[in-house]
Amino acid sequence: MLHPITTTHYLALSAALLLIGTMGVLARRNIVIILMSIELILNAVNINLIAFSNHLRNVNGQVFAIFVITAAVAEAAVGLGILIALFRNKETLQADEIDLLKW
Amino acid sequence: MNFLDSIWLIPLFPLAGAVLMLFLGKRLDPQGGQAGTPIPPRKALISLLCPGTVLVSFLFSAGAVAQLASLPEKVHEVVKFTWLTGLPFITQGGTTAQFAADWGFLLDPLSSVMILVVTGVGFLIHVYSVGYMGHEGGYYRFFGYLNLFVFFMLMLVLANNYALMFVGWEGVGLCSYLLIGFYFHKKSAGDAGKKAFVVNRIGDAGFILGILLMFAVFGTVRFLDVNKALAGGGVPSGPAAETAGFGVLSAITLLLFIGATGKSAQFPLYTWLPDAMEGPTPVSALIHAATMVTAGVYMVARSHHLFRLAPETSMIVAVIGAFTAILAASIALVQNDIKRVLAYSTISQLGYMFMACGVGAYWVAIFHLYTHAFFKALLFLGSGSVIHALGGEQDMRKMGGLKDKIPVTHWTMFVGALAIAGIPGLAGFFSKDEILWQVYSSPHGIKAVYIVGVITAGMTAFYMWRLIFMTFYGAPRADAHTMAHVHESPKVMTIPLVLLAAGSALGGWIGVPKLWSFLPETFRAFEHWLEPYLSVEAAGHAAEHHAASTEWLLMGLSVAVALTGIAIARRLYVQRPEQAEALGRAAGPVYTWALNKWYVDEAYDFLFVNGLGKGGGNALVSFDNRVVDGGVNGAGWVTRLTSSLSIWWDTWIVDGAVRLTSFTVKLSSYPMRVLQTGSVQAYALVMVLGAAVLFGYYLMR
């Protein structure tokens, strides 16, 4: 018999996704992967929001999650746009090669 | 007609001739540039005009001298106008003087002799030139120069002050230059002209310095004023008669004498005269024998009041004269060019004149000048006639045997050679013997100079008769073609020769020795004319201290020496010509040295032309290169050095300070820079860590 899925599980999943996403953002060099990692982080937040919405019996969390998805979509669109412009200029998608902000 | 007040006209006639030649000459002689063309009728006008002006001058001079003789003072001065004026200044004596030179003319016994010689002999030479130059190019140019020369020479001898005399002095120098270089297409002629000009400049510098010093002392350059100042027992400013030592009068006279050595070709400035033989022969006769070269003697005689008070200089004059006389005679012994023999003979005879000046016998010097003008002009013109006859040959080794071919030339030159050798009865005897006697007997006389004079007399007789014998006697050495064309010169050339020969033969009879007391005083007219005017001693002629027998003895000695000289010449060049060569070989180096003129020209070349001239030029060049350019380069180098220092200062100190500031900033900014990697992920990592720390802090609390 399987244990029932509790809020704690959801929070653990959320935390795991957050950590995976954070590590992806920090450690991976390909910007596409970084963007994908950012999606992971956002979705970790979404799971968190929805888990607490269910736990607290409050629909605000679910509404907020929809807003996050919308913001993520917009972010992904803008991010991919920047990424294409960047690729046209620099011919690379390696984040460590793009260090124009350096002194 | 009052000729005395018209003496200023005398030089103007030849000047008019010269000016006419300048403006009209080319029209009268259209073939002027070409030699050998027949004489066009208009050319005859030149032949009349140019000698004519000199003849008019001669007649004027004769008239003026005749009128002068009747004056009690025998001095006549005509001042036309003041020519040069200067600012007043203080003379050495402390008095104020203003420089002033008149355009003034002075006729006195001395200048009267000179103008008669210049115009008289000058006229004969002009006439001769009509024949001699008739077929030469530049006929009008030649006569224009010749007339200009007579003008300047008359200015020289008639001037009443040293400044105007200097005008004539330089003028004759110019004409001499122009006429030496008359054949200007020949490089040697141009060079000879330049040499004469340059060597004379050295003398002229001395002359003009002498004039200026004289002005500084006396405050005047007029002959009569200077004489007046000196006659008053010395110089107004203080320097009394210099009986001993070297003072200002000695300096003046020495400077004047330097001028005389240049113009009168004395050692050490004589080297130009032999080269001057490059000019046409009448020029050699007129300028380089009879007149211009005697200007120095005239000037010394003219300044006799000064020289009288400067015994040191007088001695130098006598010694230089004697040395020049024997040096030039020794060179003349072996020369082969007929004109060069005569040129060295002229130098030697001028030496005699200076000997006489040096011992204070000024009238004798002028007497020799006068007789020398006759016989040397005659000898030159005669040699010109010989050269003419041989078609331009001047080398005596290619002459000989001309005696019967050109008899007039031969006999006139024969007379001239007798005269110069000092055979009794002819002009040269009286003047030369009087010089020797004065040198021997005068209180200023020097015995060594006398001995030199006698030896020179013997050499004179030898070289002059060597010339006669080589030219006219013996077997002809010219080639048959030349000999076939030998012809006597035309009358226009021979008549002057005959007249000059007459002068050489008889000219001396106005100055016979006092010793010949059997002759009336008329025969001593020359002495009576000049001697009181040029007298050195106040009273009592020094010669009278000597016994008459001594004088007879010395006279006999000099005649014997002359005859010996002639006899040796006859033996060597007529009887035993082969002995002459043997003697030349036996003399070896001495002969070679004399033939090469004792290498004086080479020595001058070495010392002055190459040494002082080129060496000095090189020294100046190196001075320019090293010192002047060196200064500029040094200044450049210093500028560069300072600018280098400035650069260094700018680079290291000024820029250094700026860069140090920036470097400090850079250094201090280093830690910050390290954080600023530009890598977004690095920033993100820091952000995450920061968030983790903050989160941790809230959890732990």
Per-chain topology:
The complex is a heterodimer of chains A (103) and B (701).
Chain A: H1 7-27, H2 31-56, H3 60-90
Helix pairs in contact in A: 1-2, 2-3
Chain B: H1 12-28, H2 41-69, E1 76-90, E2 96-107, H3 109-132, H4 139-158, H5 162-180, H6 187-218, H7 223-231, H8 248-263, H9 272-275, H10 281-290, H11 295-302, H12 304-308, H13 311-332, H14 338-358, H15 362-389, H16 407-421, H17 427-441, H18 447-472, H19 480-484, H20 491-506, H21 525-534, H22 548-575, H23 577-587, H24 589-595, H25 600-668, H26 670-675, H27 680-700
Antiparallel strand pairs in B: 1-2
What this model shows, in words?
The complex is a heterodimer of chains A (103) and B (701). Chain A is mainly α. Chain A has helices at 7-27, 31-56, 60-90. Chain A has one domain (8-94): Helix Hairpins (Orthogonal Bundle), CATH 1.10.287.3510. In chain B, helix 3 (109-132) runs antiparallel to helix 10. The termini of chain B are far apart. The model of chain B is unreliable at 234-244 and 538-543 (pLDDT under 50). The chains are: A mainly alpha (103), B mainly alpha (701).
Task: Looking at this protein, list some descriptive labels.
A: 103 residues; mainly alpha; Helix Hairpins; B: 701 residues; two-stranded antiparallel ribbon; 4% strand
